[in-house]
Structures are given as structure tokens and as C-alpha cells.
């Protein structure tokens, strides 16, 4: 079944991690997915990682959708504007889904330091990458949706509340996009466009596997360093959450909310790649830590 056949999506920050998992799941559901980010073959970003949006787009196509890689620095307004002009021209003005997953804050976060000892330059750059980029992207993406009086904007974040996440700059970035989703929802409501925030649990991304020195096959070995990792989830889990949301004809009822993969897995009944159904919310409540994976031990999540 291809419930999203004929639908058009933009996944901003589709190079790796949650963005890649979301893009591939949308492709599996039949969507045309514009995969954007800064790393392309032959020209990697300063994140110094090997994943590229070209690979992601190929994975989308292999899964059954149409993957289109477009190099975009979402902090550069002209590049974002050009992206949506291209989408408008190529898709006859159609844009059904925009996922704001641009992050780039991991190398900028100095865990364990009070804000006045943290690099101010890095803290401000984190806001530029993880908040301003989302604002710019939505600014140019939303008009394609309001013109057709339909569409969905999803803000990917960490956590479902405003609690402190262990680092002022990190916390500000992640809670800001939750409010961004809520505020956009109000402005978009009269136009029939939906917006909300969505968080994964402890994400078992490519970078996190490398951090613990494990692979997809032996990832459980990382529990010797971080026991919470046993409750981690793959990027496919949040991908399946987004695909379920985008396929739901009643998704507008969720506008303005802050949602989670674990909560949605109960509502839409989907599993992770290995058939498990991680529930970070229940796990966090049981052991007495915050609902945000970062709130307990930011150095490892």
C-alpha cells in the first residue's frame, strides 16, 4: 500500500539521523520527497560526516517513492527561497508536508558547563542552525500550503515540554521549536494547515552508534557504557510516526500539540525496525528521569 502516493514532502535536514529515517519512511509510503541539507557527494558540510542527501534520496527511491536531493543551507534565506520556488515549479504548487529537522548542534553543545562559561559564539550559532533555520524554512514553505488550504508542518525536537534539558543553549533551541510549532498552528489554523512538534526518544542515530563504538548489529553492547541505550530507537521509528501522521485524514486535530514517537506508536500501532516498540515515556517515568532523553545525561544522547 502507498498511502502517500501523489503527495509531495520536503524534509529539511535529511542527511542522516531522524531526517533520513523520516524521508525513507515517506518514500516507502509512496511520497515524492525533497531531501535537503548541506552535505552532497564531493562537498561535505563542516559537520565532518560522510552521509549525504544524495544517499538519502536514493534510499527514498529504493523504498518506493521519488527521492530528490537538493543542497540547501537552511540558514541562508536565498537558498531556502530558491528551494521552494523549485518545488512550486516542479510540483505545480503542491506541497503537502514540510518536516523541519535541521539541527547541527551536537558539536556546539558543551555539556556540564553553566551558560556563562559555555562558548557564547557556539550557543548563538546553535540557535541560528536549530531555530532560525526552521523559521526561515517555514516562512517560505507555508505559502504553498495556505494557497491550497491544506498541508502539514512538523517541527522535530527533543522532549514534549519546557523543562530544562541540561544545557541552556540546547534547551533554548529544543523548547523554542516546540513553541514555534504551537504559534504557527494558530496562524495557519484559518487556512486549514496543521503544525505540531514531534520528538523521538533516545535516538540510535549513526552518530550515536559511533559515539559508543558500536554498530547496528551489536548496538546493545553500548549498555555497558549507558544503560538507558537499551531503550533507544532507530531513525525508522520516528519515520514511521511521520508517515502515519501524514496518512491520517484527521491529523488536523493534533495541531499545536507536542507529540512523541512512543505515544504515536500506541495510537497508530507501529513497531521499530526490529519489531520492538520502545516507549521512552514509560521508561523515563519508571526510573524517575525527565521525558527528554537529554535531561538525564546529555553527554551521551
From TrEMBL:
<dbReference type="Pfam" id="PF00106">
    <property type="entry name" value="adh_short"/>
</dbReference>
<dbReference type="InterPro" id="IPR002347">
    <property type="entry name" value="SDR_fam"/>
</dbReference>
<dbReference type="InterPro" id="IPR036291">
    <property type="entry name" value="NAD(P)-bd_dom_sf"/>
</dbReference>
<protein>
    <submittedName>
        <fullName>NAD(P)-dependent dehydrogenase, short-chain alcohol dehydrogenase family</fullName>
    </submittedName>
</protein>
